[in-house]
UniProtKB/TrEMBL annotation, chain A:
Pfam families: Proteasome, Proteasome_A_N. Keywords: Cytoplasm, Nucleus, Proteasome. It comes from Selaginella moellendorffii (Spikemoss). Transmembrane segments: none annotated. One of its GO terms (cellular component) is proteasome core complex, alpha-subunit complex. It comes from the Eukaryota. The proteasome is a multicatalytic proteinase complex which is characterized by its ability to cleave peptides with Arg, Phe, Tyr, Leu, and Glu adjacent to the leaving group at neutral or slightly basic pH. This is Proteasome subunit alpha type.
Length: 278, 240
């Protein structure tokens, strides 16, 4: 993506029919730390990689509750995300007040998308620099949406955004068909493993990641440190046992990541039979 | 305390028959009902009957006048049901916004102030709603706040509002009179009763009010708020 003479303004088309400013905004999302979302028949799980600007500071919060049944994970300019969060919250409250029913997720994402589109067609504005993974439950079931700075929105079985999200996406792509029959805890484990792919060399701790869950019998909430750490520890146990079970464990992390879930699946009644890609 | 009554005003029109008439349409109706709240040292009881009336008719025997605002605050309201419902929805929306902004639910005293402000906001077209708010304050002690229709409010140890208020208040005064805030040294405003004793008083007062009052009866809904959460109870009252 190189600088060119058509990218100064969001309201300027390039001769190739592109809006460069909007594309640059989407680049901004790719620079943010990763966020992952996945869903099963009954629950939706969001996971985030939390970065701290220095050792002295706290980790950036990226998971936010919008309503009892809806929450978001964001990647990119979190300040922009916070403002969108406020908007989403007030829309949910308004809908509940007027219709005495929770706002369906699909309607909410359309409202957000429309708001984002406005910023791509006004010369005095700039696009929102944040990608939102919207997880929610409504009468139609569990949903996971991705809201783009361009004003587009997509529904997903599972998705990852932000930096090094391709690693997480690869993990998800291989397994997403099995997710719908997963239990809540299995789904959380998958989310953590996907996030682990994005962390690569860094160790997964409850301080540098976050998990949030929403389900039919469970309001959207962010898991607290202790619960999160116990899930992470369970991952480690599975991985340690997998290492013992497969002695020709390759040195590469992607191989290690593969060993974890496959061996884990072998211990619990296997919902999947993913071959170990070496 | 403000009272809403129809008055002779300059809206009276001189008619051909010689005597004046005034418009008879009123935006308000009174759906009746009585509410009571009693605060204890670590609990609060909020109760209301379940009858909804209109004139001499009964609209329904099973309508709840209680509204949970948070885990530590329950509001009971009687009066014009449409205004009551709108007031409840309004407060619920504000409470959600507060929770998102501050990361914690509103405390009962905060809600008390919000209710007062919300009522006064419509000072010149009031919510026809007579409220008592009961719950636990920030220290976990029981608190009761009592209101008039335009938001004048006070924290007390017990209160009652609605059609049966004139019958019930003297009984509560007799049983629970809390110390005057003018006393020095200051005395506890919370009543030194146990939860069970307070519950008995609530049940007795409603039974008594039901006997002599046409707008009170059918059923009694009681909610007890304490550190273990909110516990609901329902009893029948006389249906005549």
């Amino acid at each position: 993506m190189f600088r060119n003479q058509y990218d100064t303004d969001v309201t300027t088309w390039s001769p190739a029919g592109r809006l460069h400013q909007v594309e640059y905004a989407m680049e901004g999302v790719k620079q943010g730390s990763a966020a992952v979302g996945l869903k099963c028949k009954t629950h939706v799980v969001l996971a985030s990689v939390n970065k701290a600007s220095s050792e002295l500071s706290s980790y950036q919060k990226k998971l936010f509750k919008i309503d009892e049944n809806i929450g978001v994970a964001m990647a990119g300019i979190i300040a922009d995300g916070r403002v969108l969060c406020k908007f989403m919250r007030s829309e949910c409250i308004y809908h509940q007040f007027v219709f005495e029913a929770p706002l369906p997720v699909s309607r909410l994402v359309v409202q957000v998308a429309d708001k984002a589109q406005v910023c791509t067609q006004r010369s005095w504005k700039r696009p929102y620099g944040v990608g939102l993974l919207v997880a929610g439950l409504d009468e139609a079931g569990p949903h996971l949406y991705y809201n783009c700075p361009s004003g587009n929105y997509y529904e997903y079985y599972a998705f990852a955004i932000g930096s090094r999200s391709q690693a997480a996406k690869t993990y998800l792509e291989r397994r997403f068909e099995t997710f719908k029959d997963c239990s809540r805890d299995e789904l959380i484990r998958h989310a953590l493993l996907a996030v682990k792919e994005s962390l690569q060399d860094e160790e997964l701790k409850s301080t540098n990641c976050g998990i949030a869950v929403v389900g039919a019998d469970e309001d959207f909430h962010i898991l607290d440190g202790e619960t999160l750490q116990s899930f992470i520890d369970t991952l480690e146990d599975n991985k340690a046992e997998a290492k013992e079970a497969a002695p020709e464990d390759p040195a590469s992390t992607s191989g290690g990541g593969e060993a974890g879930p496959s061996a884990g699946a072998a211990e619990e009644p296997p919902a999947e039979a993913t071959p170990m890609d070496m | 305390m403000a009272v809403l009554v129809a008055k002779r005003t300059s809206a009276d029109v001189e008619m051909a028959h010689g005597f004046k008439e005034h418009a008879t349409w009123s935006p308000y109706e009174n759906n009746g009902g009585t509410c009571v709240a009693i605060a204890g040292s670590d609990y609060c009881i909020v109760a209301a009957d379940t009858r909804l009336s209109l004139g001499y008719s009964i609209l329904t025997r099973g309508h709840s006048k209680l509204f949970k605002l948070s885990d530590t605050a329950v509001m009971a309201s009687s009066g014009f049901q449409a205004d009551v419902r709108t007031l409840q929805k309004n407060l619920e929306a504000r409470q959600k916004g507060y929770y998102h902004q501050h990361g914690k639910p509103m405390s009962c005293p905060a809600m008390a102030q919000l209710l007062s402000n919300t009522l006064y906001y419509k000072r010149f077209f009031p919510y026809y709603s007579f409220n008592v708010l009961g719950g636990l304050d920030t220290e976990g002690k029981g608190c009761v706040y009592t209101y008039d229709a335009v938001g004048s409010y006070e924290r007390t140890g017990y209160s009652t509002q609605g059609s049966g208020a004139e019958l019930i208040m003297p009984i509560l005064d007799n049983q629970l009179k809390s110390a005057s805030p003018l006393l020095y040294p200051p005395r506890e405003t919370a009543t030194p009763l146990t939860e069970q004793e307070a519950l008995e008083i609530v049940k007795d007062t409603f039974a008594s009010a039901t006997e002599r009052q046409i707008y009170t009866g059918d059923g009694l809904e009681i909610v007890v708020i304490n550190k273990d959460g909110i516990h609901k109870e329902y009893l029948d009252l006389k249906k005549d």
